[in-house]
Design brief:
single chain; Hypothetical protein af1432; 0% strand; flat
Length: 335
């Protein structure tokens, strides 16, 4: 028996009846021979890990723009923490860890520079709108590998697209990632806010702490344990009502005190303007777009989407460098 087939058989024997088995995948858009070692979801995880869009996450903002410190989260560290949460929950529930990790690795590949400020800017200026979850799917289906895409399985693509809370993935692994994403960003954004002197743990209302604990570490532990305990034996992924209510209240607290905090968000208006100016500039200068994006446009992709593809792929540093190149005067030396 081949190694891959042996691993698939192990999944069938050991996983929950509600888990998504690799052997039952709906497959890829383009048929290809299976790997002789790796099941399909592990193969997808590896493809995302080695992609250029994944590497760029290390220089994209999570919440705080250009923070003065080495320990603030980036979009990369957020992704890794989502993956860790998802693997912990998936393993405890005997779900497919490879599928959960592949979705977690891919869920934010389409995020813009400057976090949600960049996303808001493109959504406002592009006539097609812009949502990072849809762009993440577009990245793996169309943009990676110079327009060839990664040819991922249906289940991974579904989980990437539907990781927002107003959407529902078809697999339990996708639903694990959807919740893992929320508890990850609330946990690490609180940690970063405390590090930045914006909040103290003691600022969180006691009514929330009575349910989930009194420290950031206790909160994360409570959320993960509650998901596992509440979801065991169910064909669903959910929290208990008290803990879910506390999570929503903590999220509202974070929006009020961090995500809309004028100190923490003082530079976001500048970031939004920078993104909009770049968008308008590239709309008038097609010759500056990469060749593979020009080819996609020649194949029928709207230019507005192509410009969004280029800008959303940029790191914070690259976007600032392009803005300086195009709009900041350079010194002139007389020979």
């Amino acid at each position: 028996m081949k190694i891959r087939e042996s691993l698939e058989n192990r999944e069938r024997i050991n996983y929950s009846p509600y888990a998504t088995l690799s052997m039952n995948s709906r497959g890829r858009e383009k048929d290809e021979d299976p790997c002789d070692i790796r099941p399909c979801f592990q193969r997808d995880r590896d493809r995302i890990l080695y992609s250029k869009s994944f590497r760029r996450l290390k220089d994209k903002t999570q919440v705080f723009l250009t923070p003065d410190g080495d320990h603030y989260r980036t979009r990369m560290t957020h992704t890794l923490e989502v993956s860790q949460n998802a693997r912990t929950i998936a393993r405890a529930l005997k779900l497919n860890e490879d599928l959960a990790e592949a979705i977690a690795f891919g869920h934010d590949l389409g995020h813009t520079p400057f976090g949600h400020a960049g996303e808001r800017a493109l959504n406002e200026i592009c006539p097609y709108g812009f949502r990072h979850n849809e762009q993440s799917l577009r990245t793996v289906e169309l943009l990676e590998k110079d327009g060839a895409g990664l040819n991922l399985t249906f289940e991974v693509r579904d989980g990437i697209l539907n990781h927002e809370m107003d959407l529902t993935p078809i697999t339990l692994e996708g639903r694990v990632v959807r919740l893992s994403d929320k508890i990850a960003y609330i946990h690490h954004d609180m940690d970063d806010a405390i590090r930045g002197g914006i909040l103290k743990e003691s600022d969180v209302p006691e009514s929330i702490c009575e349910v989930i604990g009194h420290s950031n570490g206790e909160w994360l532990n409570t959320f993960i344990h509650d998901i596992v305990e509440t979801s065991t034996g169910l064909n669903d992924i959910k929290m208990s009502e008290p803990v879910n209510k506390a999570l929503l209240e903590l999220r509202s607290f974070m929006f009020k005190n961090v995500y809309t905090n004028p100190v923490a968000k003082s530079q976001e208006g500048k970031a939004e303007n920078l993104v909009k100016i770049l968008y308008e500039y590239y709309m008038e200068h097609e010759e500056l777009l990469p060749d593979y994006l020009v080819r996609l446009m020649e194949d029928g992709q709207p230019m507005e989407k192509i410009v969004c593809d280029y800008i959303s792929s940029m790191t914070d540093r690259f976007a600032i460098a392009r803005f300086h190149e195009y709009f900041v005067p350079k010194s002139w030396d007389v020979l």
